[in-house]
Each structure stands twice: as C-alpha cells, then as structure tokens.
Design brief:
Length: 200
C-alpha cells in the first residue's frame, strides 16, 4: 500500500466547474454514491455526473467498455477492500492521517456527525465514519440543509487526505482516478468559492 507524503495541488486559485451550491451538492452526491461499492446504477450515475460537470458522457462508455458489473465490483474490492492483504489504496482518512484504521479521526467524525443531528450507525452503513464516500455524502447533506459553516469545517478539516488517495488511485484505476479527480475539483470549488472563503 502506497502512502505518499505529498498531496497534489488541484486548480489552485481557479474554479473547475460553474455550478451553484445545489449543483455542487448534487455532483458531490453522485461522487459519494460512485465511491461506494458499485451497483447497477454505476453507468447512469457516471453519465449524470459527467453531464453536470461538462465532461462528455461518451467518456463513460470508454471508461466502462467491456466491463460487467461483476468486473467493476471485483475491481473496487481489489482497489479499496481493507479486508484483503493485497489492498492497493485505503479509502479511510484514519489510515492516511495516522497509518491505522479506526483511529481517532473516525471517532471524531462520528461525534461531529452527531453534533450536526445525524446519528451515525456503523451497523447500518457497514463501514467506519471516515470512509471517503461517507465523508463526501455528509458534506452534501450539510449543504442541502443550509449548514454551510459545518460543511466548510468538514471540507477544511477532513478532505486534504483525499488528494493522497487520488495519488494512490490514479495510476491503478481509470474509473476511480477520474472520479476522485472530479471529487477533488468539486471540493476545491467549494473551498475556494464564496461559501467557505467568507468563513476565513
């Protein structure tokens, strides 16, 4: 498992997409869904996401060409499943921050979710609170509920590690490399936009 020390710099000083808050939230919600275990909606979700961020939806066919749902699920497991010795890229913030799973970050996030009115149940979600898809989904929920300060806190405190995850993934997976790049660009648009900059 690679754990690079540096995080790539994404779109410093400029916005990648021309989306309002609702559009950013919808696009990030699709990213969150797509960063979870693949289901039969993956092709349509990718098309919807690419359409929102002005990437040709024809690219979806190129990314998925010849791959069945079972192929995509096997690829996801090989890339992200921490129960396998051959895991390639760990999708949990705790590992990138402290080098181990289920660390203080997961507990801190669980408490933060609860403080925002969301009772996180690991049994229901079947993963710790610091999985990349849950973090992105929670940012969407905060934006949707108008909890901008909390969304900006989450983005500023809990998303820097995603750049390191992207560095691990980009050479191993066209699909998830593209998806994480879009995710990072959307996060940067929120971070550098009026929403979070007014909090600085």
């Amino acid at each position: 498992m690679d754990r690079p020390n540096t995080s790539p710099s994404f779109l410093a000083g400029r916005r990648a997409f021309s989306l309002d808050v609702k559009g950013l939230s919808v696009a990030l919600g699709l990213c969150a869904d797509l960063l979870f275990y693949p289901d039969e909606d993956i092709r349509q979700d990718l098309k919807n996401l690419f359409g929102l961020v002005n990437i040709s939806t024809e690219e979806v066919e190129g990314l998925l060409e010849g791959l069945s749902l079972e192929d995509l699920q096997a690829h996801y497991i090989a890339l992200f499943d921490v129960n396998r010795e051959s895991i390639q890229c760990v999708p949990y913030e705790s590992w990138w921050q402290k080098g181990r799973l289920m660390g203080d970050v997961a507990i801190e996030l669980k408490d933060f979710y609860r403080s925002c009115g969301f009772d996180f149940n690991e049994d229901e979600f079947k993963m710790p609170a610091d999985h990349v898809s849950l973090q992105i989904a929670f940012i969407c929920r905060l934006l949707d509920e108008g909890m901008v300060d909390e969304a900006c806190f989450m983005i500023n405190k809990h998303t820097d590690w995603i750049g390191r995850l992207y560095s691990c993934v980009e050479q191993r997976s066209k699909i998830y490399g593209k998806l994480l790049r879009i995710t990072l660009d959307l996060i940067n648009d929120i971070k550098e936009g009026e929403l979070c900059r007014r909090e600085s």
